[in-house]
Design brief:
It is a single chain. With 341 residues, the chain is of the alpha/beta class. It has 2 domains: 6-176, Aldehyde Dehydrogenase, Chain A, domain 1 (3-Layer(aba) Sandwich), CATH 3.40.605; 178-316, Aldehyde Dehydrogenase, Chain A, domain 2 (3-Layer(aba) Sandwich). Helix content is 42%, strand content 16%. It is built from 13 helices and 12 strands. The protein has helices at residues 6-24, 28-41, 47-60, 63-70, 95-104, 118-130, 132-135, 156-165, 189-200, 222-227, 238-253, 287-296, 334-339, and strands at 81-85, 107-111, 138-140, 149-153, 171-174, 178-182, 210-216, 259-260, 265-268, 278-284, 301-306, 315-316. It has a 7-stranded mixed β-sheet, with helices on both faces. Helix 1 crosses helix 6 (118-130). The radius of gyration is 21 Å and the shape is globular.
């Protein structure tokens, strides 16, 4: 067995920091080529969204944050093969799991999504040039074999399959989650513009995208709609536009009450996960009431945003798509799981 000692961990941090610096200084021509390849795999992956994903990666691929993160965990004794089943809904959505596995000292056997392979392969290519030994800890495969543990991400339906198929292994199985925003009426135009980032980044396809608002009873959305007007350009993307047209037609045909600003549909609902181009909202009469509702729905919520992060346990509007290394999906500590294997 291979042992992870202090020098090994330092080498890992050095290499990941180097990768982060490379991504931050990526030449425009190379970025354009990479974005073109990615868009061919997944037409939701626009250049703007790929830039945001790379910016998110460089946010935590730096020495200071990596050291702060890893200092909280012990080194491992035995190296394990950890199978990763990655989603492909937004660019590089599985990167954090890969970083977690190799940073813990284990080997990542990765089954990437066919919808997000080009970006991942590029990062691995760069890592091979930076640190050939570390890159050997990441193995891309179409079928998971010879594994000791599994981390799999998918829908509620695929999660049932994952639980059955991987039941004999230690595992983390992730299901559908969404994020919500709490409005109290004191929000500024800038707050709502920041909230627009949380709603429209990646066209709302990520689990950290806001899919529902909690608003005071009788709330007027006039200021909200006015503030998010700059995001109307999402309608230039044909798939988003098609979703908007379809969902608007469904609401009209079914004569369901809704609000419409020309690129976003607001519908009152107690459901959590809204379709693309639709934002659900639910009214509350007191802060205590909405706290109780949020607590009852916590198994379905990825993160909560509020203006300036005023609600304990929430994050500031505009920050939902910039998680730190220690902001774990589903609030399950991935690194703790890995170091205890």
């Amino acid at each position: 067995m291979v042992y992870l000692c202090a020098m090994n961990r330092k080498n890992i941090i050095d290499s990941l920091d180097h990768l982060g610096r490379h991504l931050k200084s990526l030449p425009e021509e190379r970025f354009s080529q990479l974005a073109f390849r990615s868009a061919n795999e997944n037409s939701w992956f626009t250049q703007e969204n790929i830039r945001k994903a790379l910016r998110g990666a460089t946010n935590y691929l730096n020495r200071t944050k990596l050291e702060k993160w890893l200092d909280s965990y012990p080194t491992i004794k035995d190296v394990k093969n950890v199978g990763l089943v990655l989603a492909g809904n937004i660019p590089l959505v599985g990167l954090h799991d890969i970083i977690s596995v190799i940073s813990s000292g284990h080997v990542a056997r990765v089954k990437p999504s066919s919808k997000d392979r080009a970006l991942l392969e590029y990062l691995l290519e760069q890592l091979r040039m930076i640190d050939p030994e570390l890159s050997k800890r990441i193995i891309l495969t179409d079928k998971l074999k010879n594994i000791d543990a599994v981390i799999a991400t998918g829908s509620d339906n695929t999660a049932r399959y994952f639980h059955q198929y991987f039941s004999k292994y230690p595992h983390i199985i992730r299901k559908n989650r969404s994020s919500v925003a709490l409005i109290n009426g004191s929000e500024t135009t800038n707050d709502f513009r920041n909230l627009g980032e949380d709603i429209f980044t990646y066209f709302g396809l990520g689990c950290r995208n806001i899919s529902k608002l909690y608003v005071p009873e009788g709330y007027s959305f006039a200021k909200f709609f006015e503030s998010i007007q700059p995001y109307q350009e999402v309608m230039h993307h044909h798939k988003y536009h098609n979703n908007y047209d379809y969902n608007k037609s469904v609401l009209l045909v079914n004569k369901e009450p809704h609000l419409d600003n020309g690129f976003l549909l607001l519908q009152k609902s107690n459901r959590m996960v809204s379709p693309i181009s639709v934002l659900y909202f639910e009214e509350y009469t007191s802060e205590q009431e909405v706290r109780e509702v949020l607590e009852s729905e916590k198994e379905k919520i990825q993160c909560i945003v509020s203006a300036g992060g005023w609600l304990p346990g929430s994050i500031a509007m505009g920050q939902a798509q910039l998680p730190e290394l220690w902001d774990y999906a589903d609030q399950v500590d991935t690194m703790d799981f890995l170091v205890k294997l």
